[in-house]
Amino acid sequence: MAKVHKSVIKRARQNEVRRERNNAVRSSLRTSIRKLIRAIDSGDAEAAKTELPQAIRALGKASSKGVIHRNQASRKISRLTRRVNSLAASA
């Protein structure tokens, strides 16, 4: 029979909690980005401008918590901002 290490049991418990928390953050992040992209695709510049700060905030929080890499967050912010600005310029 294998030995039962307390640290292994604790690590498994911590990993489970962190996995659930990361999934919740990632899910809300995706929802926020999806709402912004939907506003951009519909051509609604006002809705896109109101959704952009929320998406940027969600990306910043996710990167600060280590759910996504900071470069990925920065890249997504840049691309989304560029799309919103081009929508506003064409409108």
From TrEMBL:
Keywords: Ribonucleoprotein, Ribosomal protein, RNA-binding, rRNA-binding. Residues 13-23 have a biased composition (Basic and acidic residues). One of its GO terms (biological process) is translation. Residues 1-23 are annotated as: Disordered. Pfam families: Ribosomal_S20p (PF01649). GO terms for molecular function: small ribosomal subunit rRNA binding; structural constituent of ribosome. InterPro entries: Ribosomal_bS20 (IPR002583), Ribosomal_bS20_sf (IPR036510). One of its GO terms (cellular component) is cytosol. Residues 1-12 have a biased composition (Basic residues). Belongs to the bacterial ribosomal protein bS20 family. HAMAP family: Ribosomal_bS20. Binds directly to 16S ribosomal RNA. This is Small ribosomal subunit protein bS20. It comes from Entotheonella factor. The gene is rpsT.
